[in-house]
Amino acid sequence: MLLFRSEEDIERWSDLRGTPRGEVMSVEQQWRLARAWFKDRLRPGYRRRTADEAEAVFAEIGLTGPFWSLRG
Amino acid sequence: MSPDRAIDRAENETDDLVRLAIMRMFVDEARPPAPNELASIVGIPQAAVEASLRRLHDAHVIVLAPGTPLVWMANPFSALPTPFEVRSGDRRWWGNCIWDALGVLAMIGTDGEVRTSCPDCGEPLRLGVRDGEIGGDTAVVHYSTPAAQWWDDIGST
To answer: Which of A37, A53, A55, B100 lies in disulfide reach of B76, CB 3.0 to 4.6 Å?
Structure first.
């Protein structure tokens, strides 16, 4: 998960590496995901999310589709 | 309760204490505790700490440095410097990726800044968080690996 100056930079970087372009999200969307994902990490009793729970967090901020599926 | 379930519960409680001790030292000192420090903090033998660290590693809660009982990553933190520097006041941490770097500020609940650079053009990029709002340079986030494959090679993810 890397931060790029622009989508053109992502295209060029992906082309140079010969890797397919993945998914792009806005900084605001990434901030929402970071807040939702890590909000409980310092609490006693934290446990890792199940695939269903993790996908629900993704879906809350609009991340749906095969790329965000955790079922392989 | 069966003896096996009692052992499982005791291990879960130990693992949570070990995990919390790791996270709190990362927050306070930007580094993970060594196994002997964890033994002292949690109050259990070092062998029990190392068994707990292995369980946490196997459960993808932390990542140990290969072949060692030393914590490499406890998301969102990295024990080693990365291209994702996080600052808040005079405190500084390292995130494993842009998600984790912002996650440090989100998890602690503090204002701060993430400094990195564009992997393509090399331009320095800064994002700032103030009062729970994100701002800073114009930029976009790229995920190259589908979610189901993130833990195949977490070091490169």
So the answer is: B100
